[in-house]
Write a structure and sequence with these properties.
This protein has about 160 residues and is an alpha/beta fold. About 25% of the residues lie in helices and about 20% in strands. The strands form two sheets. The chain has a five-stranded mixed beta sheet with strand order 4-3-2-1-5.
Length: about 160
């Protein structure tokens, strides 16, 4: 029903303190999800979610994403932000236990199609949800996808995933 999208290039260019602000902002959006089943939400962003190093991804704590349904990490074409799932971390174990579906997206790979324009064309609902967050509208976008009936299908064995509406 909803996608919280942290734009790779804008995030990469943001000053360090704003990267922490972005993580806290994602946490505020996460807390607005009362029931995961009623409002399934995907977060999509550059590099590693949950990293302690903001230059490598979004430094959220698990409590700031615990209500989401799908977490997607994207490699950033112009920087060093690369998905790097750490299977031994408590963060990954929390994802598994919370039944959060994980996707690593490498847009530059030959067989990967990531139509970012669809997200770019959608209205940003961020300030409707958090009016005080306007200064981050160029970095964080919240897309209402409820009417689109967004679907995700995956084959774990072949490691292929398709998101469509």
């Amino acid at each position: 029903d909803q996608i919280i999208y942290v734009k790779s290039q804008a995030y990469q260019e943001a000053p360090m303190e704003q990267k922490y602000d972005i993580a806290r902002l994602v946490g505020k959006l996460n807390r607005q999800i009362d029931e995961r089943i009623e409002k399934p939400t995907m977060i999509l962003g550059p590099g590693r979610w949950g990293t302690t190093t903001p230059s490598l991804g979004v430094p959220v704590k698990f409590a700031e994403i615990n209500n989401i349904t799908v977490m997607a990490e994207t490699a950033y074409e112009g920087g060093n932000l690369m998905p790097d799932l750490s299977f031994g971390t408590h963060f990954f174990q929390d994802l598994v236990e919370a039944d959060i579906f994980y996707v690593a997206l490498f847009p530059k790979k030959e067989d990967v199609v990531f139509n970012k324009q669809i997200l770019d064309d959608m209205p940003n609902q961020l300030t409707n949800l958090l009016p005080e967050s306007g200064k981050y509208e160029h970095i964080v976008k919240v897309c209402d996808t409820k009417e689109l009936n967004l679907q995700i299908m995956c084959d774990v064995l072949t490691q292929r995933v398709v998101c469509f509406y």
